[in-house]
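Exam prep: given the inputs below (a chain plus flavin-adenine dinucleotide), describe the expected output before reading on.
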Amino acid sequence: MDKDKKEALVIGGGIAGMSAALGLASNDIQVTLIERAPNIGGYGARFCCKASEECNKCSVCLINHKLDEIATHPGITILTNSEIKELKKSGEGFEVKLDHRPGFVDVSKCIACGICEEKCPTEPKAIGLPQPQSIPNSYYIDEAKCLRFQGKDCKICQDVCPVKAVNLKEEVRESSLEVDSIIVATGFKPFDPTRKKQYGYGRIANVITGLELEEQFRFKGSLTRPSDGKEPKSVAFIQCVGSRDIRQENSYCSRYCCAFAMRSARLIRNRMPEAEVSIFYMDLQTAGKGFYEFYEKVQTEVDFIHAMPGNLEETPAQVVVIGYEDIAGSKIGQKEFDLVVLSVGITPDDDSVKLAELLGIKVGDNGFYQILSSNGSLRAADGAIFLAGACQGPKDINSSVVQGMRAAEEVVSLLNRL
Ligand SMILES: Cc1cc2nc3c(=O)[nH]c(=O)nc-3n(C[C@H](O)[C@H](O)[C@H](O)COP(=O)(O)OP(=O)(O)OC[C@H]3O[C@@H](n4cnc5c(N)ncnc54)[C@H](O)[C@@H]3O)c2cc1C
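Solution:
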């Protein structure tokens, strides 16, 4: 590393962290980006493009572009399976200790040939890519599935690897680095839908989450019912699952869900023109340039039902029955659907409080990280620590990109003054 250069640490490799890292690196700041998962991209790397006959502006392509750009950027070192362990002030900057969990495959050697996966005797396979087209494009071992970590004497993957990338004896490793500034971009966790028992997630086969819809379209290219693998002829979205819900202590709006449901509804109608799509909603957030016009267009293709769903039930043919109360007229109704999609909200990550304590940043009432002042700065602590993305509050991809870039700009201008 060039010691004359300023250095920054970005924590979290989702769209906000990638945008921040690229913003810093393009200003000649050396960046280390740490990601606790085996691959970067965050949730967005699991989403599908929602274009119908036209682009529906879901912004998922931004993530794909940033992944391509960051993977080969000489000014950015990406460390996956890595988390921060200790932080100490050091002059104007920080001394940071990192923990690197073993993935048992050397990312710099793996050529993703797939021989290890083919020969792995477990089902599902214990070794594989974290997801198709993952960055880094390297295999890793899931200890929970691997025979070796259940006490059996298996080392087939290590023996068959043609480039000797597999090391089953790899252990947790520590490293340290000095940085001038830190951007925290640790994102969010989708609301756990089993907390809303009435919607039957986990009990009714054909009730899925928005994330599962995204993954089906992205990795399989189609949407099918979990119960029989058939394309649904009718699909319902239920909005605000875990958002604007005082009983779940999440009274805030998750900001992405209205647009997500409308864009996904258009995608479904485009791929399966015969399918009927309904959206059950409390109230719609149609703010944003051109979004009201978009909503008017979607209204011609989709049935918007202004109602609160009650209990969901399943018929013997595994059709989902939604009982609901109409909000305007207080009428009670019932409708049947082949598939129901829960638009789950955005909640703080499970480890957010632990990390906040380690970094000395504040957590707000709703569990998201707080910026220090209301003057527009993204600074989160007296030292040079800044926030970006959904760790600071619910956001869509566009706002996460903008905030990542703004955090980078603040770091650049601060470090230029030192
Ligand atoms: C079902 C669903 C569908 C959506 N669809 C859309 C859409 O179509 N369009 C749109 O604009 N928005 C959509 N969104 C919103 C979108 O997901 C967010 O705007 C975006 O993911 C926020 O990016 P982020 O980088 O802040 O967070 P994340 O995507 O959560 O990325 C954070 C990253 O940080 C890592 N991390 C967390 N803690 C640590 C740690 N301690 N150390 C190291 N790494 C850590 C995580 O592993 C993760 O990779 C959707 C959300 C959901 C739930």
